[in-house]
Amino acid sequence: MGCQDDEKLVQTVCEIYDNISALESLKPSKDVNMLFTQLVLTCLPPTPIDVTKLCKRVQDMRSKLIKLCGEAEGHLEAHFSTLLGSYDNPLHHLHIFPYYTNYLKLSLLEFSILSNHCTHVPTQVAFVGSGPLPLTSIVLASFHLTDTTFHNYDIDPVANSMALQLVVSDPDLSKRMLFRTSDIMDVTDELKDYEVVFLAALVGMGREEKSRAIEHLAKHMAPGALLMLRSAHGARGFLYPIVDACDLRGFEVLSVFHPTDEVVNSVIIARKHAMPIIHMTTSTPNLDQGLGSMILPCKCSGEIQAFNPLINHGTMIEELAMEEHFS
């Protein structure tokens, strides 16, 4: 994609943003669904564009657009959580959510990545920012981590109440899916209990807020525990916040996956350093050296473009060998 193509893409996104901004409500409706579908289809094709390097006007628009996307996604999840909660067995009807297939693919991708870096099945994990429709936790608990307990954290008590309604009729998940109403910034000692922490894409809409959340996790998670978080790549950065390896101080980035199919989010897995980090003051000030661990450059090393990451018949993705690039 050349400069003209980049300009055309940005112009199209700006026009869609203007139309979304003019909406009276972001709750599901014909106009809302049409505009956000148009936005996703515009941003989905893989492109080399770096949205973080666009002009300030576009950066400001992008920040506002990500918040609008988050708000619309919240309304969409609440709408379908309410609908699913009206059934006697909500989990039997998850397919009515229009993006359920994407969650199946994303959860399989995350489980596959986790399996490559975790030596055993975790006893209990935390999912931060689970929302009213915690599909990632539900899919992972139902199909992949079938003996693991999930502690789902959300700041909104209404969202947690709606989420609980989805699993309460299931004899297994009702015991293994726990919901906690807390701001994750207020959760400290409990974080040491989790072998894996999942951080939802919309926890921390801006880079500073996201960095504060990651810094809090780095301070309170158990040494050696794994952090799985979602990012975005290319034009998909208009839809979700982008997390760079530089934002993961206190962690060793193990791998980064950029799907190129309809799964929108990139997936990053990182391990909390077992010992404190020494901040170097040499000619390479942007590098952190973890004692007993690899040195990471400030850009994401080991980035993987996961073309068609899901093999037919539900087999695991094949992780490519990572190469470290030191600049």
TrEMBL record:
GO terms for molecular function: nicotianamine synthase activity. SUPFAM superfamilies: S-adenosyl-L-methionine-dependent methyltransferases (SSF53335). PROSITE patterns: NAS (PS51142). One of its GO terms (biological process) is nicotianamine biosynthetic process. The keyword Transferase applies. The keyword S-adenosyl-L-methionine applies. InterPro entries: Nicotian_synth, SAM-dependent_MTases_sf. This is Nicotianamine synthase. It comes from Stephania cephalantha.
